[in-house]
Amino acid sequence: LLHKPIGYVSGQAEDGYEPAVVLFQPENRWKDDPSGIKPHPNHHRHLAPAGRLDIDSTGLLVLTQDGRIAKALIGDDSDIEKEYLVRVEFVAHPVPEGTLPNAALTP
């Protein structure tokens, strides 16, 4: 599991953006992790996202090496519910009268 920040892509690098998997670094590990699991470089090899978050999105990204897990989460037959919270900032600008297409003015 990885919290993907804005500015990273979920999967393969594209258009100058790095994939989120590059964030798996010792300095990004939770310092108070009580699990006792010592990360090994091979733990992060061949990780693929089980889902997708856009470059401009932030949130929990599931990465796995096991196609069965990915299929269970995002496959066509998956019944696992996904929830997305979207925040939109809208700044209304006045539109001069007569500039909207006629279709926008009809009820």
Any overview of this molecule?
The protein has 2 helices and 4 strands. By secondary structure, the chain is largely without helices or strands. The longest helix has 8 residues.
Summarize the structure.
11% of the residues lie in helices and 9% in strands.
Main sheet overview: 2 strands, antiparallel
Q: What share of residues are in beta strands?
A: 5-15%
Counted by DSSP, the helix tally is 2
Distance between the termini: 47 Å
Strand order, sheet with most strands? 1-3
Please provide the count of β strands: 4
Task: List the helices and strands in order.
Answer: EEEEHH
Classify the helix fraction into a percent range.
10-25%
Q: Which structural class fits the helix and strand makeup?
A: little secondary structure
From the alpha carbons, calculate the radius of gyration and give it in angstroms: 20 Å
Low-pLDDT runs of 5+ residues are none
The quaternary structure here is: single chain
What number is the mean pLDDT? Answer: 86
Shape: elongated
What order do the helices and strands come in, and which of them pair?
Layout: E1 2-4, E2 48-49, E3 59-61, E4 63-64, H1 67-74, H2 102-105
Antiparallel strand pairs: 1-3, 2-4
Which features characterize this protein?
107 residues, little secondary structure, two-stranded antiparallel sheet
